[in-house]
Amino acid sequence: MNPKIDCFIAFSGTGETRQTIEWLRRSPLVQSVFVLSPQPVTLDGAETLVTNQLLATDSIRLIAEKTTASYALLALQPTQLGVGDYALERLLQLAEASQAAMLYADYYEFKEGGRSNHPVIDYQAGSLRDDFNFGPVQFFRKEVLKAFTEKEQASYQHAGYYALRLLASRMGELCRVPEFLFSMTETDTRLSGEKQFDYVSGNAREKQVEMEQACTDHLKKIGGFLQPNFKSVEFSGDFPVEATVVIPVRNRIKTIRDAVDSVLAQKTNFPFNLIVVDNHSTDGTTALLQEYSDERLIHLIPDSLDLGIGGCWNEAVFHPQCGRFAVQLDSDDLYFDETSLQQVVDKFYEEKCAMVIGSYQMCNFALEEIPPGLIDHKEWTPENGPNNALRINGLGAPRAFYTPVLREIRIPNTSYGEDYAVGLAISRTWKIGRIYQAIYRCRRWEDNSDASLDIAKQNAHNAYKDSLRTFELKARLKANQN
Q1: CA 476 to chain centre
Q2: How many CB atoms lie within 10 A of CB 338?
């Protein structure tokens, strides 16, 4: 018997949905079409499934119940879907050949009157973040959906689909088809920097809790879960100062003075210094730094010409004047007030931890608070934070480290994700302390490195962080096996 496909699409307006149904029905491979909608609608060639939560567990179970064909096509984004010529035939051909649990493909994106290519990235074991972009269509084997109804015990309002694709990854491969098989109309046209903090808005807290539960359950089932017995630190050894603030900088003439001044203004009961690693600036930053006569400021210009932000950090951390604790400050940003550094060091001793992560206030170039305001990562818990770290895309800021641990791990010589790599490695073994009030001002402006990234750059960033999670997951699997 030739395999068939049941198609499940989100309602995106009467005209748009009718057109999608028509495109799908052109293929003789389609057995049935179902439209998921918050209210009943009458559409020729399709059956309506009423649901208010497209990604909820109940919706996925409903889809599984209705799936009788060998494969199910899921298009659960409520935006107009376009189906390329013979796209379904191609998916079915590759699904049969690969026996993958799920397939997804590159797509075209219609935005602001134009069409552009939107490639996606390959799935890895570490692709655990819940916002992984599979494109508008996912193509599941029927057995995956049936297994979901049998094995998924939780009842999620937001994390049902996330739990489904984690289950799929345990049952087989999630394979990307590097061909443009579908198209969709993009409804969120904001720049990459404007989307970055969506996780703290609206119903984000409830959603984040569910996603963490689903990810934790997945880690337990694959043997990657860390039990909450993380090591404390007994601080020892002689250091030239108690704390060193580290600022890597390249061509930040507009902001570096504010950053440096905010460090030198700190009031502490211990000695500290500041190491600015000037990565061969050409815009006057170097001359500005040379104007300072404060002996606490150490201005380094590396010999190497190939350093990213991580490499600059290594220059500072292995410098003989680096203190017991190395504390982050980006060259765009500044400390919230004169007590920030004291709060960080106090937290180290209070919790005997190897890393401290603070909270920051979003502000514009004039230091006026902007939405979403305070970013505090309160989803972190001492018990499960290191497991949830494999799902989220960052651990927060500012970050501070016990220098001997940081010297042992070292920092990847990259300019993106280097802090996340170190945080993951530390969280596998050591306690991490958190400060939930603002001790840092994060300045958003047009020269931020993540303000406006094209698709290729976003994909490169996401693939790199997924690779960090993959390596870390392998390390945890090995540690648990031992």
Answers
A1: 19
A2: 13
